[in-house]
Design brief:
The protein is built from 7 helices and 6 strands. By secondary structure, the chain is α+β, with helices and mostly antiparallel strands. The strands form 2 sheets. Strands 3-4-6-5 form a 4-stranded antiparallel β-sheet, covered by helices on one side. The N and C termini lie far apart (about 40 Å). About 35% of the residues are buried.
Length: about 210
């Protein structure tokens, strides 16, 4: 069984950027995390260190223990910033503070694309987004100014689907639906419009673009 991180290593992991997973620590601490598969050193200057998926899981698990609150399915990125997927029972407060948080999270995600996509592309989803599909799609929509669904039902709702690497986006109104499609396409997603077989409700099926 793999030994758990030391207290010092846990502090470095817990202090990682909540979206990009970028790490700060001594060379010894970072090298130890790389050796254990919890971090990787980016090959291009400035050779920053980032959490691997295993490192992110440890950080997320710590957040769950600290809050002692059940995590809604596919709504949080790290336990620190939660992209709004629509329809939350207790959504975060709206206002300038939320706008700043969303903008910062999106900028961090774009930087993560630049640092982790093999060709440095920022117009195409990265590996983190492919393992956090609902959060990634919701962040793209919220960052572009689309309103998430509230108690009245208006706004978008992003949900997981049985299909691999695909999320469903539901939003009332043809114009709003197509507006969400345009936003996701600009953010590097492949988007198709579909109808529910029984209700005939129109919705989007979106997948991260690979090329």
């Amino acid at each position: 069984m793999t030994r758990p991180p030391t207290a010092a290593q846990r502090r470095v992991i817990d202090a990682a950027d909540p979206v990009t997973g970028r790490l700060n620590g001594t060379e010894t601490q970072l090298a130890a995390l790389v050796k254990r598969g919890l971090a990787f050193r980016h090959p291009r200057p400035p050779h920053a260190h980032f959490l691997t998926p295993a490192g992110h899981r440890i950080r997320e698990a710590a957040g769950d223990l600290d809050t002692a609150v059940p995590e809604p399915a596919a709504t949080t990125t790290t336990g620190v910033f939660a992209a709004r997927i629509g329809g939350e029972e207790e959504p975060p407060p709206a206002g300038p503070g939320r706008v700043r948080e969303v903008r910062s999270a999106w900028e961090g995600l774009v930087e993560l694309r630049r640092m982790t996509n093999p060709d440095g592309a920022t117009d195409r989803p990265c590996g983190w987004e492919r393992t956090h599909l609902v959060q990634a799609a919701a962040l793209a929509l919220e960052a572009a100014g689309h309103p998430p669904a509230g108690p009245d039902g208006d706004g978008y709702r992003v949900r997981a689907t049985p299909q691999p690497e695909a999320v469903a986006v539901h939003v009332p109104g043809t114009d709003a639906l197509r507006g969400c499609a345009v936003t996701l396409e600009k953010a590097g997603w492949q988007v198709g419009e579909h109808s529910e077989p029984r209700t005939r409700e129109r919705y989007l099926l979106a997948s991260p673009r690979r090329m």
